[in-house]
TrEMBL record:
Transmembrane segments: none annotated. Keywords: DNA-binding. Signal peptide: none annotated. This is Helix-turn-helix domain-containing protein. InterPro entries: Cro/C1-type_HTH (IPR001387), Lambda_DNA-bd_dom_sf (IPR010982), TransReg_Diox_bact_type (IPR050807). It comes from the Bacteria. GO terms for molecular function: DNA binding; DNA-binding transcription factor activity. PANTHER family: HTH-TYPE TRANSCRIPTIONAL REGULATOR, METHYLPHOSPHONATE SYNTHASE. The keyword Disulfide bond does not apply.
Length: 91
């Protein structure tokens, strides 16, 4: 584990670090898929009915989408995400 992650574990706790890593993974996968489809953030926002700023903040890891918002995005991008951890979430 990197020195940064070790310090983060000490400061905010291992569970919070795991949560942040999972959220970052999801955000990255959304951005990659959007780009694969050739959509701009504005185009994805228009297709989903969400604000462009919402898409941008999710992709930047600044906001964690609600499950409803996440499902709307995943549906439009025609993608599934598997998150593994203590429990497995299949979306």
């Amino acid at each position: 584990m990197s020195e940064f992650l070790e310090k983060a574990n000490q400061v905010i706790g291992e569970e919070k670090v795991k949560q942040l890593r999972t959220e970052g993974y999801i955000a990255a996968q959304i951005k990659v898929r959007r780009q694969e489809l050739g959509y701009s953030q504005q185009q994805l926002a228009d297709k989903t009915g969400l604000q462009k700023s919402t898409i941008g903040r999710i992709e930047a890891g600044l906001n964690s989408p609600s499950l409803t918002t996440l499902l709307i995005i995943l549906e439009e991008l025609d993608m599934d995400i598997t998150v593994r951890g203590r429990d497995t979430l299949l979306v």
